[in-house]
UniProtKB/TrEMBL annotation:
Record-given protein name: Addiction module protein
UniProt-listed InterPro entries: CHP02574_addiction_mod
Superkingdom of source: Bacteria
Cross-referenced Pfam families: Unstab_antitox (PF09720)
Length: 72
């Protein structure tokens, strides 16, 4: 079974450090030759730029999860 973010302690990191880690993981996939479609890279770049331009526009995960579960 694959480790969870709790097993790895990732859930204890700040949002900024988790985002940095996402970038590092993403970059490691590319450096290993893992096929990542260009359209996915373009979309990630677009979303990262949007998040950097307006960090207050995002919502905490617990709010998003509650909305998706119909709990809000």
């Amino acid at each position: 079974m694959a480790p969870t973010i709790q097993d790895l302690g990732i859930d204890q990191l700040s949002a900024e450090n988790r985002l940095r880690l996402i970038g590092e993981i993403w970059d490691s996939l590319a450096s290993e030759g893992t096929a990542i479609p260009e359209s996915h890279r373009d979309e990630l770049d677009r979303r990262l730029a949007a998040a950097d331009a307006n960090p207050a526009a995002g919502r905490p995960w617990h709010e998003v999860r509650a909305r998706l579960r119909g709990e809000s």
